[in-house]
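Lecture 7 notes: from sequence to structure.

We start with a single chain of 210 residues. Read the sequence below before looking at the structure.
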Amino acid sequence: MNRSVSKGSAWAILALSTALVSTAVGPSASAATPKDTGEVAGPAAAARQRACPIVYFDLGETLVHTADDGSTSYQPGAAAYLRALRVRGIPVGLITNVPSSWGATDAERAARLRQEVDSTWQGSAPFAWRDFGDRILTPRTEAERKPAPALWQRAKAGSGHCRVVYQAETAEEVRAASALGFVPYQVGRPHLPAFLPVGLVELLGLSSPG
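Now the structure, written as tokens:
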């Protein structure tokens, strides 16, 4: 994909940024003063005002590409993007369809998923499984497969006060996640960033999800 930014695409990125900040983030917590909140300003108060963002992804054709020969590797820019989130301490997770028969628990199904991906991996660096920890959500039954809401609901319920982002390549999944309260981003669109810019993800931590 041509990553050069034309004048038109720059305006599109600016519009995206404005929309995310004004509609998803809402009023910035940094605007709240001790007079507004009744709290004494300081690190503890600032920490309470922040809402940690968690970024969930689909896997196939979002972070990982499967070639015609069946081999798998990172999508362009995915490894660098995950690294940038890691450096900033932003947790990541996966919400991905796999056969429910792959295991009785998310951990068992995630282990089988890792085995399947790693067995065909052709990338120069291995997939960053450790970044995702236990935040790999998969269907417990075939009825839970996306676009059914179950996996997004489980991710939301397990995220506490944090804002949740969902990034995927399909508009259908992005719309479904948005309807369930996620900040959505469809990856891989022409003339837009391949992934939701990390700076905007950080801005999502400036106010509570409400």
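Helices lie at 7-25, 34-37, 43-49, 78-87, 106-119, 150-157, 171-179, 198-203. Keep this in mind for problem set 3.
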